[in-house]
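Throughout our pipeline, every protein is held as a single compact record rather than as scattered files. Such a record has a labelled line for the sequence and another for the backbone structure tokens. This encoding replaces a full spatial description with a residue-level series of whole-number codes. For reference, a complete record is included directly beneath this paragraph.
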Amino acid sequence: MRHGIHGGHSGHERHSCHGGCRSRAGRAGRTARLLPASLVAALLLGAGPDGSGETVPLDGDRPGKHLDVTLTRVVDPAGPAPAPGADRLVAVGLRLENTGTVPYEDSPAPAAHLLGTDGERFTGLSGETDAGPALPDTVTLDPGRSASGYVVFRVPQEADLAAVQFALDAGLGDDVAQWSLP
């Protein structure tokens, strides 16, 4: 699972290097040694006050399938307001950028999950929210293209949220991005 600027990596590097190229993990490790510990902690937990700002690269299940995913914002609660006693809406803003060499086509809502502090897992839904435009049911991106929008979640009123996760292949991919929520 990938978290923040570094984490586990399943699969192969994005490209092969000949003579002098360094892996992403190697660069991140050197950078972390040069940064003050407080800044490194902030980067690992999220650059923004809502755990947002981090971009996590994900590798797909076939050669050339790579996506950079950025958590842009978490709106909790998101409108419209629920009926009394009903679940609340949480909107998670994501930016998806195809950094691979093949087209990316996937359904972002089921690829996104919210994790509760009690271990409960909530799957994203396609739908409108007052937070901003929703990501389409299916996103198709040519290499170099990006899309941004919100995925909506219905969570119990009393649920405390711990993290956001995103994985390719409608959430079933082995390479998982995770952002901790404050």
